[in-house]
UniProtKB/TrEMBL annotation:
Coiled coil: none annotated. This is DUF998 domain-containing protein. The chain crosses the membrane at residues 6-25, 79-101, 122-140, 152-172, 184-200. InterPro entries: DUF998 (IPR009339). The keyword Amino-acid biosynthesis does not apply.
Amino acid sequence: MFEYYTALMGLVATVWITCGVYIAGRFYPNYDHFNQFCSELGAAGSPTQKLSPWLNNYPLSVMFVIFGWHVTQLPEASIAFYITGVLIVFHGIGTWFAGYFPMDKDPYTPTPSRHCLIHSTAGSVVMLTLLLAPVFVAISPDSELVTPWFRVFSILIVLISMFFTAKLVNAFQIKRGAGLYQRLSYWTQLIWLSVFSLVLM
């Protein structure tokens, strides 16, 4: 039963963050999901600076770490699976740091604060870990844990997330649509995490 609930954490985390970002946005007057980053909900000086980390980052970090630990403990897991689990654990740790160290209220400031630089580094870890995790699953040795369709699905997720990330870079430069493409890029990865969670249950 314990293994069932730890395997479920990947799916629960996706549902949690979806609801959490929406709820936090409701407490941020005129918050724009299309143009504003999710991290702006917890930015220094924002109306939801204290709410957002406690609603999103801190509980999510625990869920990610538990799920990643679960993956590393699978009895039939290969080294590739173990690395996948470690990456998900680091994803959780990065999520915690991104919440504890807020970004600047203006994401386009030319001189970011030290807290913002730490936040940005943690954010990069968050994005990169869930971009690499599906790759390691896709190249893992044959086992009952990984079916051919899930390997193909994992690679497709990586390609789609990279596409949206490229769109995010462009949106950031023109200062329009960055929030949308950040969500599309990250939620694509979270869809993979949810399906992976269901596969392991």
